[in-house]
Amino acid sequence: MLAASLRAESIATHTSLQLGDLTALIGDNSAHEQHRAGYNGVWSLRHSAGTRSIFVPAVAGLNLEHIVTGEHLEDSKTFFEPRNSPMTLTRISDTAAELHQPLTPTFGVESWTRFTLSAPHYLDMDFRCRAHRDVFPRGYLSLFWASYMNAPADKSLYFLGGLDGQKELWTQFCTQWHNDQSTVRHRDDTFEMTFPEGGRDTLFESLSRFRFDLPFFYGHFDDLTWIVMFDRSEGIRFTHSPSGGGANAELKTMNPAWDFQFLIQKPKLMKDYGFKVRTALRPRCSRGEILAEFTKWKEAK
Predict the structure, then answer these.
(1) What is the Cβ-side half-sphere exposure of residue 173, based on CA atoms within 13 angstroms?
(2) How high is the mean pLDDT in each 10-residue block of the chain (301 residues)?
(3) How many Å apart are CA 103 and CA 106, to the nearest integer?
């Protein structure tokens, strides 16, 4: 009976987690009701003080979207390989679930993504991946996550950083067009991802002049603030699109994408790489309180 129960848990396409102020729906690449196929991660994230999910209902947030090596960019199925490859979902507990993606057909990357709720308003993501094939001729492996935000009035990301010579300024980042000056690197990030000449435009190769100094960003959603914090700066890049989530016909506006990347230089086969993300969804607060959230988490690690 127990074995059958565990087996049923592992073949579900989605599961709901609830703790404190948050309710999260975690799912694989399956379609279900209004949710479209090909969008894994957090199908829905709601705060008890809010009226709707912060993510576009048809798609997702913290969606593993791209595996990037600089090659195979023109074929859309390969370009979105993590969205097109099978995944399994396992419910770990009432507050945790894990997605496992076996090695993908083109890039041969296997990954595990665990989502965990913590009171009162935290959703943690713990990611780990492993390369099974040497398919990195340009010397890097990058993974890309998209969060399709559900028509916030303010489409901007905010972080501590700035231009050259401007250190730790509160910086507003809102691109005007998709694939234009989209990606913000850390102040010390000097690695250049290379791509074939004349290829498709992408968010990850279009770089902003802005740099971030501390590895977190936040954005406003209705009367809430969503904070996205990383356990490191090395390899982390922030990415923004003003329209990545398509249009919201009811509100007559676009859905922005608040994205990020994890870059691995000279990846080694069968070695595990990973990082941790803490997100906080809470009623709007001051920048001092946002910085305190990051500081508290960093000191507790």
Answers:
(1) 33
(2) 38 93 98 97 98 97 98 95 97 97 98 98 98 97 98 98 96 98 98 94 97 98 98 98 97 97 98 98 98 97 75
(3) 9
Q: How far apart are CA 110 and CA 51, in angstroms?
A: 36
Residue among 299, 289, 298, 285 nearest 49 (CA):
285
Contact by Cβ (8 Å): 21, 282: yes
Assessment of whether the complete model's pTM goes beyond 0.90 = yes
Contact present, 157 and 72 (Cβ < 8 Å): no
Q: CB of 182 within 8 A of CB of 239?
A: yes
- As a residue count, the chain comes to 301
For residue 240 the two structure tokens come to 């923004």
* DSSP notation for 86-152: --EEEEEETTEEEEEEPPPTTT-EEEEEEEEEETTTEEEEEEEEEE-S---TTSEEEEEEE-BB---
CB contact at 8 A, 27 and 14: yes
Structure token digits, residue 137: 């001729």
End-to-end CA distance of the chain: 38
> What are 214's two structure tokens?
């501390």
**Separation CA 172–CA 159 (nearest Å):** 7
In whole angstroms, give the CA distance from residue 275 to residue 173.
24
Burial class (CB in 10 A: 0-12, 13-18, 19+), 138: middle
**What pLDDT, on the 0 to 100 scale, is given for residue 26?**
98
- Alpha-carbon distance 211 to 106, whole Å? 32
